[in-house]
Amino acid sequence: MLLKDLQNIFHKELDAIYGKEEVNSFFYLCTEHYLNVLRIQLTLEPEFTIAKPETETFFTVLEELKQQKPIQYILRETEFYGLPFKVNEHVLIPRPETEELVDLIIKCHSERSEESQIKILDIGTGSGCIAISLAKYLVNAQVYALDVSIEALKVAKENAELNNVKITFIEADILNESAWNLVFKNLELDIVVSNPPYVRELEKQEIKPNVLDNEPHLALFVKDDNPLVFYKAITNFAKENLKENGQLYFEINQYLGKETRQLLDDADFKVVDLIKDLNGNYRMLKGKRN
Hints:
By secondary structure, this protein is α/β, with parallel strands linked by helices. The protein has 2 domains: 3-67; 80-288, Rossmann fold (3-Layer(aba) Sandwich), CATH 3.40.50. The protein is 45% helix and 20% strand. The protein is elongated, with a radius of gyration of 21 Å.
């Protein structure tokens, strides 16, 4: 079958759901992933043909896309901060906002990392995208990554190997304060970072079906009556385990910026900054331990 004809079928079936540009993006991701064929090659070779087994693979992908399954889960891979990552239904698909959080930390600590072996803990690591990116770009950093999900940790460990970085992975529940001393005994940290669950149940109507029906709710949602439960626990943990002047970084719910900031103020953190993302929303929070 001509690959060009297959592309036309993708547009016919999917444009109404995703729009022409996104469908093009999906198609070229598939040609690169399954055929190792780049977009430019299709332009230069309009008569490029594929065999029946490959055609069937594309039709399988097409059906999954019609069901609004994320392309990252279909291909079981994505890119984050210039690095490759494996993903599946047990971990969130990394977002551009989280790349901004990683970039903020790297810019704040790259020189310091070269001078000493700073210790970093990523809480709720999921795919490991934050921890692995920090380990890759902060020279000499000693990075720890925690998650309550065994399945998520399996993915994160695979991603650490894929990106050739050393991470100490920890299976633990940050909400279980009684376990803190057992897991983190004598561990003084320079940085604590987290992108914890923060979407309230009342915000579910804002979530697109491809996210709501596919990504792990454990990593997304919190109860309406206690939306900052993870932020409270992590702030308390950071107050106990960060070194003096150690820093706490959060990705936050843009609707709860003031409330989340108040947690750090109440815990006597200093120089607490709410930071906007590239879309102008308050999505990051940074504080320094007294």
